[in-house]
Each structure stands twice: as C-alpha cells, then as structure tokens.
Design a protein that fits this description.
mainly alpha, 137 residues, single chain
Length: 137
C-alpha cells in the first residue's frame, strides 16, 4: 500500500505547480470523503436490513417453536377435539414430521445468529469507523 501511495504521489505531484498539486490533492481528498460516505450509507442500510431480518426471525421462531402445541391449539380452535378430549389425547400425531420441523427451526436459529452477528459487525465496526472517518477528515 505504501508503494502505491508513493507511486500515486509521484505521478500527481511531480511536474505540477504547487497550486495545481494542492488542488489535485484537495480534489482527491473530497472524492475519498464522498466515497467513504457512500460506503457508510451502504453498510448502514445493510446493517438495518440484517437487524430487521433478525427481529422477524425471532418472531417466527418464537411463534413456531413447538409444533405439537400449535397442532393442539388448532385442533381446539377448529373443534376437531373438545378440551376434555384433548386432555385425554395420547396419540403421537407428528411422528417424523417433528424432526423435520425441529430441523427447520434449527436452521432459522442459525440464520438468526448469523444475521445478528453481521448486524453487530456492520453497525458497531464498519459503519462506525466509516462514519467517524467521514466526519473527521
């Protein structure tokens, strides 16, 4: 990187009048700040997307955590069984579907962890650094 900076400085500064070289440097600094701003805006939007995604996943996981309870509730609501009948109901209605359901929820939980980690990385590290460098320089 240092070699590139030296090469860049040598190409724009050599053979230029001091005022012209200063103007080129000012222009490049302004461009760099604007580029940093665009990266900051992009990463901030991605962080918000991941935050929203994680929030929605939490809701979905919480709502669908126990398929057996969902089935029993639905059986009561749709009057498949009365509450007395449901209390005495001892049949494994789900069978192997329970494992499939749990696998799907486990996948959603992994996705939730990944989205949360990426949100924190983008929000706390990347966006914060870019915002700070954009505001300082």
């Amino acid at each position: 990187m240092d070699e590139e900076r030296t090469k860049y400085a040598a190409t724009i500064l050599v053979g230029k009048k001091p005022l012209e070289a200063t103007e080129i440097i000012r222009l490049r600094l302004s461009q760099a700040k604007l580029i940093n701003k665009q990266f900051f805006l992009l990463f901030r939007e991605l962080a918000e997307l991941k935050r929203y995604h994680a929030q929605q996943l939490r809701k979905i996981i919480a709502k669908n955590e126990d398929l057996n309870n969902l089935l029993m509730r639905d059986m009561l609501e749709s009057r498949v069984l009365t509450s007395d009948e449901l209390r005495d109901f001892r049949f494994d209605s789900l069978g192997e579907v329970a494992g499939l359901w749990d696998g799907i929820l486990d996948g959603l939980k992994v996705d939730l962890q990944s989205s949360t980690a990426l949100y924190h990385l983008l929000d706390r590290n990347v966006s914060a650094e870019l915002k700070e460098s954009t505001e300082k320089d």
